[in-house]
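Customer ticket, subject: "Can you confirm the structure for 3-keto-5-aminohexanoate cleavage protein?"

Message body: Hello, I'm evaluating your service for our small team and ran a test protein. I'd like someone to confirm that this is what the system normally returns, since I don't have a reference to compare against.
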Amino acid sequence: MRKTNKVILTCAPTGSIHTPSMSPHLPVTADQIAHAAIEAAEAGAAILHLHARNEADGSPSPRAADFMRFLPRIKQGCDAVINISTGGSAMMSLDDRLEGAKAAQPEVCSLNMGPLIFDFSGAGKRVEHWQHEWEREYVESSRGRIMYNDNAYIERIMLEVGREFGTRFEFECYDIGHLYTLAHFADRGLIDPPFLVQGVFGILGGIGPDLRNLGHMVTVADSLFGEDYIFSAFAAGKHQMDFGTQSVLLGGNARVGLEDSLFIDRGELAKSNAQQVSKLRGIVEALGREVATPAEAREMLGLKGGDAVAF
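Agent reply: Thanks for trying us out. I re-ran your input and got the following:
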């Protein structure tokens, strides 16, 4: 792992898991997403991991038009690196999931390094009243869906987004096997270091939220990539801050955001994404490390720069 005293904080403001009925603070309109992202950047997030939503009902959207409602505003309001999801949701085709990335040509896109059961049905147990018709079925039926990315899909994303636009990737690894898939594509020369490896923990269907698993993932990644990678981690739900802290202690980086957890403390909903970023920033600084600026993150990751995007 490449280690510096600088810590790259990523914020994922909305995602495609949580629904409007789960928290009044979840940003779902373009205005809300733009505001939340800029606030998170001001709090210390160097990278913003973004999904789009339908304006009418807050459901996940792959449409480029929905991304473009907020991307230019975020770019105008802050200097953070924009990272667009190519995961979208398990309800979307690959072509759907690539629509926003191809239109925006961002500095970074997320890339799931394999298929997995992506069961977030438990998140619906806290909801007493659903605001929109789509929400309940979408959440409860996740136990029967697979988030699909096979090696052919992964290669398409690397070629059609990475090679075509000079976009680099946040390689989301939900299990140890995903690291070996990443090594396969690195050996083939389809991607170049440094690799931003984002360890994802606590999704029902992926690697569990045991801190020993975080250490194991770093050990395996070290054996596969040596100093050719930069590590970051996050965990879903109540494990968010524990895993962010442990990743920083191991010399890595971390991600927070309402995509990953709606809470700031036990039983207390986070009022904003910026609140989570500020809490993690305080932990980072208490540990004697410094939060990286967007310019420093660009240098660390070898990014093309914010002037080379299409928004």
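A couple of notes from the result: The CA atoms of residues 215 and 310 lie 38 Å apart. The chain has one domain: 6-308. Feel free to reply with more questions.
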